[in-house]
Amino acid sequence: MARKARLVIVGQAMHLLVRGHNRQIIFSHDADCRIYLDWLRDAAKEFGCAVHAYALMPNHAHVLATPRFEYSLSKTMQSLGRRYAQYINRQQGTSGTIWEGRFCSSLIDPMYALRVQRYIELNPVRAGLESRAEDCKNTSYQSHIGGKGETWITDHPSFWGLGNTPFERQLAWVAFVREGAPHHEDRAITEHLIRSRPWVSPEFIKQNPKMSLNQWQVKPRGRPKKL
Length: 227
Known about the structure:
The protein is an alpha+beta fold.
């Protein structure tokens, strides 16, 4: 059976997830994370992706990015995935894939972009690896609060709406992240991502009628209730 094509809209942010095969560890050391980020930067620049946020966990990685072209996401992730798999195989003396199938992807409504960015940067906290976002070394959080982050990270347009100056935006972001997200929001983001479904509002669906977005919506589990 042919794989279903990804829903990608050029210029709209996408939430991406890659996982290690059988949940194997893919980032054992800070050096691994450094290499992965450097190669993500290079691939994104080559194929036209603006990276807004990331979180590298021991056995998976989250990325929020906007493609300039229809092929941008696939080319970026394929190039990065192959290069990093070769690196890990050399390090461990192994061969073959290190990834669990192709990456998951979820189209994100611009209204929800900052919520997804928060979800990504709080990933180590939710997993119990850190107690605060400030303590997370391998996320984009520091890039958004004026710390020693990645200078190549591109702020999503929604981030610019947080304030008129960099300082105002940084303070607003700290407050927004510390506020945390309700459980139902985290659950919705996770479910849409794992099932590669768009997380969009009814307004976004109405504004993009030609995309047939209704067919992509996450339906409740189980049989429909009888009327």
